[in-house]
Write a structure and sequence with these properties.
Largest sheet: 7 strands, antiparallel
Helix content: 25-40%
CATH topology: Protein Transport Mog1p, Chain A
Number of domains: 1
Strand order of the largest sheet: 3-4-5-9-8-7-6
CATH class: Alpha Beta
Number of helices: 4
Shape: globular
CATH architecture: 3-Layer(aba) Sandwich
């Protein structure tokens, strides 16, 4: 009987341990960004001008990705203008699309949510076509301890499962001390 109870306790302990995801610390200078570690995802450092880019496993011939940057910018600097600058965002993304021969399909409206750590997340994005493929790009501005963290996700539109991964990463994102 004691062996059965011991095995049962071990199984419950193992289940509880695996129920909580491991987190990755993305550290730059004195501040850290903490995100959930995802199975088979790869972390790239200092690529394409971004300190951290998290790459999904390949799906439909491409890897989705999400970048993380501690901008160091004070909260007041950008957040107040985000809600009123949708037209500016759309205009700049249309200009960018022209420079890379892409076609803007639609824009996602600006929205604000609070993640599980109590940080406000401002989000805006677009869907565009380029070289026969359709992409979805989202920009996130996360208010974290008086500073702004910036994150951008990019995926093929048909890789919808990665949108949930991005959402989970942003929802679970936390930042280190000042």
């Amino acid at each position: 009987m004691m062996k059965v109870i011991f095995v049962f306790v071990c199984i419950i302990s193992l289940s509880l341990t695996t129920a909580y995801a491991k987190s990755l610390e993305l550290k730059r200078n004195t501040r850290s960004i903490f995100i959930e570690e995802k199975s088979n995802w790869k972390l790239g450092k200092d690529l394409f001008g971004m300190p951290f880019i998290y790459f999904s496993p390949e799906a439909n011939g491409q890897r989705s990705n999400i970048s993380f940057t501690d901008t160091g910018a004070d909260l007041e600097l950008d957040v107040k203008s985000l809600a009123t600058s949708q037209k500016s965002y759309q205009s700049s993304r249309k200009e960018w699309a022209k420079t890379v021969n892409a076609d803007v399909i639609s824009f996602f409206p600006y929205e604000v949510k609070v993640n599980q750590h109590g940080h406000k997340v401002h989000k805006i994005g677009l869907r565009y076509a380029h070289e026969g493929k359709t992409y979805q790009e989202q920009s996130y501005y996360i208010e974290c301890r008086g500073k702004i963290l910036f994150s951008k996700s990019l995926r093929l539109s048909k890789n919808e499962a990665h949108e949930k991964d991005f959402s989970d990463l942003i929802n679970g994102l936390d930042c280190g001390g000042v």
